[in-house]
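note to self: the first set is below, dont mix up w the second
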Amino acid sequence: MTKLLMVCMGNICRSPMAQIVAQKLTSDAMCSHQLMFDSAGTHAHRLGEPSDPRAQAALSSHGYDAGRIRSRKITQLDFQNFDMLLAMDARNLHELRRLSPPEHLNKLRLFLTFAEGLNETEVADPYYGNREGFERVLTLCEAGARGLIKHWTAQRLSASPF
């Protein structure tokens, strides 16, 4: 099983949304038994709290189960236990590089590097914005997750490592 960790700052908006979207799209592609997703925050100041209600509303309005994800902070074990850690933006990628043991630096990437046809490389933080910002995050998460699944499938067929 390939294990992927979605990472943002607080683990209440972007990374839980990316996790939920990726889980659903993976299930739809019938490969959920081969890919496992989780999420964490580099700072996670609201430990144990559920996702932002605006994130839950955006997900629910598009048919996603907002789930029962609770905010958690990334740990050293995450670098060891996950095959890839996907940051939502450059700031969190930088923080992951700072926290990562050297032998796991090759596991760190920006989530949107897998998205096709986008000009954006980062999923902007919608926390201080409005509903439209959360809708945009959802759109970007769908593009990133679709690209990620496509990339994983191609790598699996070619027998290359992720």
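second set (the one i keep forgetting abt)
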Amino acid sequence: MNAYSNNQTVIYHNGEFLKPKAATSSLYSQTLHYGNGVFEGIRTYKTTEGTKIFKAEAHYERLKYGAKVMGIPFNYTVEELVAITYDLLRRNQLEDAYIRPLITTGDSMGLYTSKESILTIQCWAWPKLMGDNLLRVKTSSFERPNPKSCFVEAKVTGHYINSILSTNEAKDAGYDEALLLDMYGNVAECSGANIFMEKDGQLFTPKKGSIMAGITRSTILEICQEEGIPVEEKHFKLEELKQADSAFFTGTAAEVVGLKSLDDYEFPLKWSESLGYKLMKLYQKEVLGQRKNKLSKVL
């Protein structure tokens, strides 16, 4: 059928488990016309203790937050959402998978939020979004949205036009990814992941405000604290990033991936000797439940 489903695929849609072709959506949905919908990206892993959705509660809390700030009615509890998702994984016989919950709105051609919503949850086997190779990154001509123009920490469908524009620009120019700055010229994030840089044995990552403060980002910060790796959240400019020893992106779909270069600057520290590489390995152990100090539990 496509890269995300086949004839055996089951999705959860509007209270039912269905085949993808049996699910319908309205041509008058406010999500379709204006981008007023909310989604999440979640991963599940096969561990020695069974199938584990990594930080399921945190993801579904953020989904509910997005619905709240966008005025979308949504009455599922976090516990219900987690239970439905495990049921969906079992029906699709998936253990290592990507999970995409999506809240769409009802019919409305006006700009006041529709009073109807539909929950759809899909899952499929999906390798790391950005692959395992080091990335060649281009500074984008597009900026992250002004935080006074929207709720930048909500995963609203319409916000990702910004990501599509920056990704198209970078890939059309022969790069792997785009790096966006904020309205003040500070480094923000890439099209769909957060960034960390290493300088003189310390890590730095942009402060909250203009970024999507990712759940993988917060996990890396927690691992750093547990492992005694110095890390600071601060604003920094592109020029400072282009003097860094190493850099990497973090995100649920991307996990942890290193940068080879930014524009014409090549990061000098060998990736295998960087803190990013160490954290990539620690993160892999974390999601598989293999770290001594686990940040999450199997549900």
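remember for set 2: The CA atoms of residues 133 and 258 lie 8 Å apart.
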